[in-house]
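Researcher: Next entry in the queue.
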Amino acid sequence: MRKNAFWVAILAVLTAFCASCAPFGDGGKTGNNTATGEPFTSMPSATGSPASTPEPAPKGSYTQITQEEAKEMMARDDGHIILDVRRFDEFDEGHIPGAVCVPNESIGGAMPKELPVLEQIILVYCRSGRRSKEASQKLADLGYVNVYEFGGIIDWTGEVVKD
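Model: Structure for this entry, 163 residues:
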């Protein structure tokens, strides 16, 4: 009898663990980034491009989009901000036109003064994509609800300017 209770308890723990790891009916489009463990939502698209602004990620997370989706969003007049989270010296070497630099290291417990509106669409990038994911999660944790991370400038095929 004790042996059966032990196996029932083990099975219950394993079931609970597996259920917490599985996506919630969305085909794996939301969850944790396997490289960083951070939550994100990837943007599915049958044509490779969204018809409208992608849905924001669940509260406390951000939306990961492709660079092509970011380019399409940048072409819209929707009040978005392009956020470069590299250091200022990296930003000065070249950045996406119209981008604002707020280094990842400076994003902490308070809202950055450059980002006064929690509902504003924020398109986040860095050099390779690591810092932009970190910064996007920090922004989501601060309460920003329209954070879209699109990787690094090393893969950017669009225009780059130097100030």
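Model: The chain has two domains: 1-25, 33-155.
Researcher: Noted, moving on.
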